[in-house]
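TEACHING EXERCISE
Course module: macromolecular assemblies
Task: Read the component lines below, then compare them to the predicted structure of the full complex.
Student: A.B.
Group: 4
Components provided:
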Amino acid sequence: MTEHFPVLILLVPLFGALIVVLLGKERPNQCWMTSLISLGISSIISLFTVVAVLADKFQTIRYRMGGWPESNGYEVGIELRVDILAALVVFAVTFVGFVNTIYSKTRAEAEVQDKVSFFYALIQLLIVGLCGIVMTNDAFNLYVLIEITSLTSYALIAMGNRRAALSSFNYVIMGTIGASFYLLGVGYLYIKTGTLNIDDIRMVLGNNNLWEHQSIIVAFIFIMLGVWTKMAFFPLHGWLPNAYAYAPSMTGTFMAPLMTKVMVYVMIRVMVWLFGNEFVYSGQHVWGELVIWMSVIAIVAGSLLALARTDIKKMLTYLIVAEVGYMVGGAWLGNVTGQAGAFYHILSDAAMTFCLFIAASIIVLRVGDSRVNAFDNLFRKMPLTMIGFTVGALSMIGLPPTCGFFSKWYLISGGIEAGQWEYVCALIFSSLVNAVIFFRIFERAYFGQITEVKEDFVPFDSDANPETAIKEVPWSMLFPLFIASGFVLLVGIMNRTLFEWIQTALKMVNT
Amino acid sequence: MDPIIATFIEDNIVPKFNYWIYVILMMIGLYAMITKNNLMKKLIGMAIFQTAIILFYVSIGVKDTAGIPIISHHGSEHHQGATVHSESGSSSEEVSPVKVKNNTIDKDKYANPLPHVLMLTAIVVGVSTLGLALAISQKIFKSFGTLEEDEILNKLRPGSQ
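Instructor-supplied answer key:
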């Protein structure tokens, strides 16, 4: 049974999605229950996978789809490959999906009305795609899974209002360019190596010493451009803010924490496993310094753009752009500390973005206005929600014991080790800007008084009085917020253990 | 013609004709996706862009002397080879199924099937992307009444409606 865990993580939500479509829109409760159960099973299995990998001394689990044996030392079929890094990210994906489904219960029926069953089906397919991206060991299969996640997310975003449809269209155009560049890169690699399995490509490249061949360099640049477009690295970030801000709230809370982070995982995997550190960080290529400077620009620009926004969701989406800059910079520093820091930041950023997006969605729902100016006196009216929001915000600023502090700590120590002072400065600058952004909200929420009532105010309940309409949301929405903020603290407190696991796995590949 | 240009064409363009076409098609697609104002034209650009990559992959598998990559069965090797011969006449040497001799395959005799198989998947992905994008543009047309990007952005500007 244990050896089938990797494929079961994928199959359970896949069949869950089919069952949800069959149940149809007349049975929203059963749809919700089915996806809750399937994602629950999937996240339990992935937790067991983490335990299994740890119990086996970080031994990588390999699973051949369809049982195709290798021939002449090369993999023929598609291979799934789970090490501790993949297991942790898969657990994050499935668990966030599970918790987000609890949150979706009331929101899905309110926001997408007659498409509830399609919503649950698509969100499960999205999780299948994300877990597949993390686990697959086949470069072309990775492309197909990237497109599966992209297609489902285009559809999920387009379920929102009319602005969401337009942002989804822009995302389709940008996403297709990104995925096609990745596909081209894989094509060049295939021409030179004749195989698609990531480990085999690495082996062929090493055995024949193809590192300095033009096609390999072109392939690397194409793959990087494709992955950067998909993760919204700064100059290519245009599609992200609108898409995540206008999507239905329960879609935004799921995609914002996971989509970009999984693509960062793909980037680290391509850099470390497919091409290898000697190639990526060798002094012969100009890209090392260049990418660090690009990430510095991404961090600074993302933070400043977030500072300029008054709409809370837009603000958070620009913060994601800055966070992507952190991770790209950390991965390109050229030492294991930076790589492990970037990887730890994937987990911590998933936790804190999830927490902040749920809190922001609840606030926007109750206040009826997404502008920060409307958040007067919120701490008195919704104390529980604001506690969750504060935990996420403090983590974004980087205060211990939240995970945001530790990921910044590791990234900064990686930067100092590599002597990239511009990157260290950008991280500290971004921390300070985040402090300004969030304390602006805290100030209003603690000390602000309501001065005027908006005319077009639409309360959540029939209760028309805005003084009493802003109150706590039901537990089905508060509970996910508390789980998310609990994870922000948990990932922070467990930072030493997690960081050692990540470092061990990265060192195993480098030797 | 200038002999330098002639040798350049002979050395670089004629043998790599497919790859030149793929680059040109890709640039046309990219140009349309980035600069066109009409959403439908952007989608046409996207389709050209994806087709260019399919052309690139299919070109990888081509070999001068190769035929269809179908391997006949070990046991009935003679029998099948004979039937193909009689059915398709004398010129069928190139398209006849590849025979397995002593368990090894003469790799110059048949085209590499893997890129073609990959492109079957990529075509499916491309079609579904295009279908989804058309559905989304239909939704945009229903809510804005136009597919011109600048008109849509004008309607979204605060105070215009």
